Amino acid sequence: MKKLKVIFFILAVSTATAISSQSQKLPTGFVYLNDIDSTIKTELRYLSHNNFIGKPIDGYLKDTLIVSNLTAQALKRVQLKLLQFNLSLKIFDAYRPQHSVNHFVRWAKILDDTLMKKPYYPKVPKSKLFEYGYIASKSGHTRGSTVDLTIVDVATNTELDMGSPYDFFGVISHAQYTSISKKQRANRLLLRNLMISNGFKPYEKEWWHFTLKNEPFPKTYFNFPIR
Predict the structure, then answer these.
(1) Catalytic site residues?
(2) What kind of fold does domain 29-212 have according to CATH?
(3) CB contact set of 205 (below 8 Å; sequence gap of 6+)
(4) DSSP-assigned letter for residue 149
């Protein structure tokens, strides 16, 4: 009987260790978004092949979203308002390690690697990605308080039509672009107003991109992995 108890104890300890090892100890001020609001939908594009490079990005090791705690609390407030109308946030990217940004930079310099040009940058020469500001050596995401997101209908789990896809390189993705339908403009405005009213500032070249105004690490670019 004692031997059985010892075996069960060892198994319990091993299981607990395995579970805890699935996450990492985050820097002070950072949280896993799911721990703050598990109702917010996510689709971590840079963990998949469905992104402008066409392969998983360095530093994305697990399907989990990390943000500063202040950002998570603000997103929760936005989500509570949307849920009243059977809508939800859907986040594509949040904290991004610096070595992920470095991956973007290396890729942008390989001009003949245009695997995903058609769906993501059909009218933009790859040689112009730096000049036009689509790729940069530093990103607000690396500070932990910038998010890329949209709104989905909870009943159908479909994204609201914003007039252009997430991460599409082109003027149609500019927040104030007018040559889209009234419904598409209304959807962009809904997202924009909710984010601004809850402490975020928009980025005018990307309707999906918002940064917390009082971000806690405005000059720090982190490099811990997403896992």
Answers:
(1) 206
(2) Muramoyl-pentapeptide Carboxypeptidase; domain 2 (3.30.1380)
(3) 133, 173, 174, 175
(4) E
